[in-house]
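Design job #97: recover the sequence.
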């Protein structure tokens, strides 16, 4: 079987695969390495660790990465890729944070359900970035929603399709600005002070490519969410 066909048929949900991402060329800190080890050691599931070299192995010929991808910060590359992977392949995703939980039962629970996604109940302080009346409604309903640091999706659901559509539509709108002002460092965001003391012209806010899309979307689809305590440890990880 050739590589492109194998990718087309791969199902991360059925294979119980968990994706982790490290998209920049910066070296992982000891805390991150320890966190990654707990994911391998404790989840009892296959782990697909994707870095800046191996990401090419996961790009589908029928849906290449958005042309804005090379201009994104490492954080925003990860934000985009978790959406891309969850739509095309499904399976689990977790930030590289310490976890002590086995994930097999979470996969089993979602498989027994008609829901497209399983995630942890969002934290009260987990949605600071959505403004206005909508933000107030979303924060008021946080216990009905799921967080974005760890989850499991069935592949090619209506929810992931809309998530990817909105994400790539934003990148379409920002493409020219990203070409003019690509990310200067892994944590770049609009207005952050650069080493020379000037504000960054990078045209994406910190949560613009993930939380500002993800939380309104899961709020609109909150009846389709399955909750379980899949969250990692949110303490020191950097």
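Job complete. Output follows.
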């Amino acid at each position: 079987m050739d590589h492109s066909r194998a990718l087309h048929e791969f199902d991360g949900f059925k294979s119980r695969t968990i994706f982790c991402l490290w998209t920049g060329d910066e070296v992982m800190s000891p805390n991150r390495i320890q966190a990654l080890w707990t994911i391998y050691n404790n989840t009892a599931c296959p782990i697909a660790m994707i870095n800046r070299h191996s990401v090419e192995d996961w790009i589908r010929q029928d849906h290449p990465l958005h042309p804005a991808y090379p201009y994104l910060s490492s954080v925003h590359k990860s934000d985009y890729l978790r959406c891309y992977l969850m739509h095309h392949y499904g399976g689990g995703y977790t930030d590289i944070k310490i976890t002590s939980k086995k994930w097999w039962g979470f996969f089993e629970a979602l498989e027994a359900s008609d829901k497209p996604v399983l995630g942890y109940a969002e934290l009260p302080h987990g949605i600071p970035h959505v403004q206005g009346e909508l933000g107030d409604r979303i924060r008021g309903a946080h216990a009905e929603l799921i967080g974005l640091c760890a989850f499991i999706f069935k592949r090619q659901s209506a929810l992931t399709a809309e998530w990817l559509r909105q994400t790539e539509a934003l990148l379409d709108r920002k493409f020219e600005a990203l070409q003019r002002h690509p990310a200067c460092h892994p944590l770049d965001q609009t207005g952050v002070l650069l080493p020379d003391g000037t504000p960054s012209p990078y045209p994406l806010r910190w949560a613009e490519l993930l939380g500002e899309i993800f939380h309104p979307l899961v709020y609109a689809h909150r009846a389709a969410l399955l909750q379980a305590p899949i969250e990692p440890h949110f303490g020191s990880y950097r």
